[in-house]
Amino acid sequence: MNSTGSNNAAEAFQRLHGVAPTGVWSAPGRVNLIGEHTDYNDGFVLPFAIPQRTWVAAAPREDGVLTLASGSATAPPLRLADLEPGSPRDWTAYPAGVAWVLRQQGITGGADLVITGDVPHGSGLSSSHSLEVATALALLGLAEREASTSDVAKWVQQAENDFVGAPTGLLDQTASLCCTEAHVLFLDVRTGRQEQVPFDAARHGLEVLVIDTRVSHSLVESGYAERRAGCEEAARLRNVPAVRDLDTEAGLPERLQPLVRHVVTENARVLKTVELLRQDRYEEIGPLLSASHASLRDDYRVSCAELDVAAQAAEDAGALGARMIGGGFGGSAIALVPARIRADVERCVAEAFARHGFAAPRMFTAVPAAGAGRDR
Ligand code: ADP
Ligand code: MG
Questions:
Q1: Measured from the CB, is residue 55 less than 6 Å from ligand 1?
Q2: Is residue 115 lining ligand 1, measured as CB closer than 6 Å?
Q3: 94 touches ligand 1 (CB under 6 Å)
Q4: Is residue 48 predicted with pLDDT exceeding 70?
């Protein structure tokens, strides 16, 4: 694990509370190689953990109060018994939401939590889930409660859906909890079946370049809920539990067809990508990434100008493929790039952004890192 990060969190706790924390837990952000907007359709996803993480240094309390500090922000103490969905509404909603869910699981004592982290916020790299997962592990750890990763994932989903009010699926927290170094996580969301698939782009002279457009997305406000409702309606009309069970959009009302077409083709692209990885045919993944982007842009309609420019500019500069990741309407894109031209691709993307009058994007190469756990 990253000992500097956990030391920093422990020191921040010591500065604020005058004592050392009982423990430090951390959880990473994630990149999803492919499989977007498939998780809440019971489909397939293929994420990996990024090196950027959120750390939670924690000590237990016995008065049912939760105190939260992050960076320079120290929130007023929250009484667990008073927590209700919808309040608080700022950043504290994420850890408070987790505490609210875990209180229903009998974890009632309260805690002091000091949060540090380097996952960019609102960049589609899932800083919110890394915060929630690290909080959940900290509160469970303080209470000396064992829990399965599927239970933790479910509780975090309840916190996001019911407390924060973002109707997200299971991809992000499962990725943060279960990803391992040097692998992508092949997850069948319906069955929960997981497979760690080795992912070593460098051995093929390739890199995954993350392009953060710096356009902040908001899942609570965006068209995410509307897309999700459209998929649920399509499944209902065809009498199946989820769009996962469909193999064509034919026969559905015209307005639902593009949504279903995206999910059906995206699930197939995930399966194909896994097959190519197993066969060491990394370069052939590029066109699948680009097809995923086109499908998200044209059929699912969750892209935006900055994401389209990022993907297109990367490809024009020699990337083998590129696509938006995350919920859309902002956030980040990834590009599969030959390592020898990575600097050229970065330059071309930056120039394209400047030409369009967009703020400069932030770019970094992502290598699969470790999932969540206790650091000390
Ligand atoms: P994403 O998950 O893609 O980064 P979200 O909008 O879902 O974007 O979540 C970002 C929000 O999560 C931030 O605006 C902030 O409220 C909260 N957050 C994430 N990490 C931290 C942190 N280290 N300290 C405080 N709040 C955080
Ligand atoms: Mg988020």
A1: no
A2: yes
A3: yes
A4: yes
Residue 182, C-beta contacts closer than 8 angstroms, at least 6 positions apart: 198, 199, 200, 367, 368
Question: Which chain residues have CB less than 5 Å from ligand 2, an ion?
Answer: 128
- φ/ψ (deg, to 5) at 23: -165, 170
Indicate the CATH number for domain 200-366. 3.30.70.890
Residue 172: active-site member: yes
User: Which of 39, 172, 212, 299 is flagged as catalytic?
Assistant: 172
Q: Which CATH number fits domain 3-192+370-374: 3.30.1360.120, 3.40.50.300, 1.10.150.120, 3.30.230.10?
A: 3.30.230.10
Distance 253 CA to ligand 1 centre (A): 37
pLDDT band at 168 (very low <50, low <70, confident <90, very high): confident
User: Domain residue spans in the chain?
Assistant: 3-192+370-374, 200-366
pLDDT digit string, tens, across residues 231-269: 999 999 999 999 999 999 999 999 999 999 999 999 999
Distance CA 35, CA 209 (A): 17
> How many angstroms does the Cα of residue 94 sit away from the middle of ligand 1?
8
Structure confidence at residue 219 (pLDDT): 52
| CB 121 near ligand 1, within 6 Å | yes
More confident residue, 195 or 220: 195
Q: Pocket of ligand 1, candidates 67, 118, 121: which has the most ligand atoms within 8 Å of its Cβ, to mutate?
A: 121
